[in-house]
Write a structure and sequence with these properties.
It is built from ten helices and 13 strands. It is α/β, with parallel strands linked by helices and about 350 residues long. The strands form four sheets. A five-stranded mixed β-sheet has the order 1-7-6-4-5, with helices on both faces. Strands 8-13-12-11 form a four-stranded mixed β-sheet, with helices on both faces. It has a two-stranded antiparallel sheet with strand order 2-3. It starts with 19 loop residues before the first strand and ends with a strand. Coenzyme A binds next to helix 2, helix 6 and helix 7.
Length: about 350
């Protein structure tokens, strides 16, 4: 992304649609510690072969509290990298949104801690919880706040540390193999070019599906018919087969809905930046939709499913590799707990 001079807050009043929205910079941050399939074989009954065949994951990252790693520290590091890429400072930001389901505390939000860490002064800051869809939902919000003239510069961070909600024993083996920790950030800014920004966006949820992925805290959180088990408090409970079915179906429907809204053909999209839920889900949906391999980025083999961080981590790797750049049409696609699913098609 080409950098531009920093803005001064507050944003000047503007008329809706007079200008566009561009991605000024991206960044990401991963914990130092690697958790390989071989590491998991030592603590639960599983195998590298089983994990790779069912998920495509070889290793994931895991925070270490002794190194002071947390959702907050990863978020701040990702944002600092994005600010540097955009040649901005924290003081240039009007608003910070953190998409996460693993904030350290219920209050304050991770976004407030990040704002303090990067010196964002009195910029607005809040968290969004839409599980794996959180970054895409938040990017859509950021876009419309800028397009509507309310703000000039909004940072959106997707960050999660699901390792804190895992049971690394046999009881948790169907979830512990999937999830990893990380953070990714993107800075959205107003531009005089009105052709840049969202061509279409979708945001959906189906609360009926809440019990397919949930984190119980007390007895009343278990769905009807499921016995309370205190050993599961604070641990992700997932109906893998139901999520798999939901994700495969949703993936292609969501892409089609977004293309239809924008009036754009799939062949004209330069890159699909998709939530890395499971390689089989990505491959099944890609084949069903006819997307070529080079147009659907995959990093799940190296980082696992990083929930809210998944899409911005991919985006940052693609931007830094020069595979996503100004002029491209790029689609974000995500789905996850809630159930939630969302997309955006960007003209960069
Ligand atoms: N290692 C070895 N065996 C395992 C295992 C592991 N880590 N986890 C589960 N198994 C076993 C099960 O106990 C079961 O054994 P059984 O047949 O003797 O009862 C068998 O493998 C099949 O279990 P199942 O849960 O049906 O496997 P699956 O083929 O559905 O794969 C998932 C499990 C979780 C990998 C798969 O359902 C999935 O990827 N779902 C989507 C999850 C997802 O993407 N979530 C994130 C959404 S954002």
């Amino acid at each position: 992304m080409s950098p531009s001079p920093a803005s001064n807050r507050p944003a000047a009043p503007a008329t809706t649609g007079r200008f566009g929205v561009r991605i000024a910079g991206t960044g990401s941050s991963l914990p130092v510690g690697r958790l390989t399939n071989a590491d998991l074989e030592k603590v639960m009954e599983t195998s590298d072969e089983w994990i790779v065949q069912r998920t495509g994951i070889h290793e994931r990252r895991r925070i270490n509290h002794e190194l002071n790693e947390s959702t907050h520290t990863l978020s701040a590091a990702a944002l600092r990298a994005a600010l540097s890429a955009a040649r901005m400072t924290g003081a240039d930001l009007d608003l910070i949104i953190v998409a996460t389901m693993t904030g350290e505390m219920s209050c304050p939000s991770v976004a407030c801690l990040v704002a303090k860490s990067v010196g964002a002064g009195h910029a607005g800051a809040f968290d969004v919880n839409a599980a794996c869809s959180g970054f895409v939902f938040s990017a859509n919000i950021a876009h419309d706040l800028i397009k509507g003239g309310t703000y000039k510069s909004v940072a959106v961070i997707g960050a999660d540390t699901l390792s804190t909600l895992m049971d690394y024993s046999n009881a948790g083996r169907s979830t512990a193999i999937i999830f990893g920790d990380g953070a990714g950030a993107a800075i959205f800014r107003a531009t005089d070019d009105p052709s840049k920004g969202l061509l279409a966006q979708c945001m959906h949820a189906d609360g009926e599906g809440w019990k397919d992925i949930y984190v119980p805290r007390e007895a009343r959180d278990f769905p009807a018919g499921v016995a309370c088990d205190p050993s599961k408090f604070g641990r992700v409970q997932m109906n893998g087969a139901a999520v798999f079915k939901f994700a495969v179906g949703t993936f292609s429907d969501l892409i089609q809905e977004t293309l239809d809204k924008a009036g754009v053909a799939a062949a004209d999209v330069d890159m699909f930046v998709c939530h890395q839920s499971n390689l089989r889900i990505l491959t099944a949906a890609r084949e069903r939709f006819g997307i070529s391999e080079e147009k659907l980025y995959v990093n799940i083999d190296r980082v696992g499913n990083t929930v809210g961080a998944s899409v911005p981590l991919c985006l940052d790797e693609l931007v830094r590799a020069g595979r996503v750049k100004e002029g491209h049409k790029v689609m974000f696609v995500a789905f996850g707990g809630g159930l939630t699913w969302g997309s955006s098609l960007w003209q960069l």
